[in-house]
């Protein structure tokens, strides 16, 4: 699944951040569920990347989970599967 949100007209920084976070959250969720049945799954590579549970993996091994995060407006976020949300892991400091 892929979401690309483009707002028409003038968009406040708060709305832009909310749209960006929604896109990252949807991407993070989609890497954890089988594309065929919706059960918990893993990213796999067999001539193309896809997400599958063990039953639908077609022999492809699970790739290591992506523990990387994303930085939006100077704040680093990571997906927390238990909370099913993006959590702040680092805030950029402004030195004066």
Protein model, in words:
With 96 residues, the protein is of the alpha+beta class. It has 1 helix and 5 strands; from the N terminus they run αβββββ. Strands 3-4-5 form a 3-stranded antiparallel β-sheet, with helices on one face. Strands 1-2 form a two-stranded antiparallel ribbon. Strand 4 and strand 5 form a beta hairpin. The protein starts with 12 loop residues before the first helix and ends in a 5-residue tail after the last strand. The mean pLDDT is 85.
Q: How many angstroms does the end-to-end distance come to?
A: 42 Å
Query: What characterizes the major β-sheet?
Result: 3 strands, antiparallel
User: How big is the Rg?
Assistant: 16 Å
Oligomer, anyone? single chain
Query: Structural class of the helix and strand makeup?
Result: alpha+beta
What overall form do the CA principal axes indicate? elongated
Strand content: 25-35%
Determine the fraction of residues in helical runs and give it as a percent range.
10-25%
The count of β-strands is 5
Which strand order do you get reading across the main beta sheet?
3-4-5
The total count of helices amounts to 1
Uncertain runs are: none
In N-to-C order, the SSE pattern is HEEEEE
List the helices and strands and how they pair.
Blueprint: H1 13-30, E1 42-45, E2 49-52, E3 70-72, E4 75-80, E5 85-91
Antiparallel strand pairs: 1-2, 3-4, 4-5
